[in-house]
Amino acid sequence: MSKFIRLHIIAEGHTEEKFVRGSLAAHLGKFQISTDVRRVMTSRDKRQRKFYRGGLINYEKARNDIQLWLKEDKHPESRFTTMFDLYGLPDNFPAYLEAKAIKDPYQQVKILENALQNDIGDSRFVPYIQLHEFEALVLANPANLEHEYFDHTAAIKSLQKVLADKGGNSELINDGYDTAPSRRIEKVIPEYDKANVGSFIAGVNGINFLKETCRHFSDWVNTLERLSSDL
Questions:
Q1: pLDDT at position 3, please?
Q2: What pTM was estimated for this model as a whole?
């Protein structure tokens, strides 16, 4: 029998946070999962009791934040996951060098996610690293950018060609400085608004569309959907 689950998502930045709130949370609600999200903590001012969040620049800080949330909610029906980008992952991340030596990006994230899970050491934790960054979800259907950038027809067509060159698999659009998904969009649409437009565009066709087009994302969401029935 399915039970109600509380899912806590530690997101890398504003874009992922808005996507979870605007698209993913509603989808998971159909599976008896209540989802909340917060950006990963980067620093805090103890004197003023302020917390600064957003940007995965140091793994130890991210680890501490994950561990803190695990301690804050020890209930057996609570679950935790991440939404971190492979692109720009800090070099002190578990198994970073081992994964860097692997050419297959799917094998890379498998190694990194397994290492993260082992390092956190809590059975309630489900690691997820996005191939190669959040904008892979935007580029799953570049035509959706016309909702906001209708005067950039040629630019959007060039992004559709990028997707076609990868066999329609936006998760294979790689993580080079000039070739990462967000860089490709910004190159042809300089005014691209990552946090507001990107988070909206990624969810236009719905989570099921993203599952059909993004294999690694699909594996993650499928795992989350089963959480309530796995109790």
A1: 76
A2: 0.91
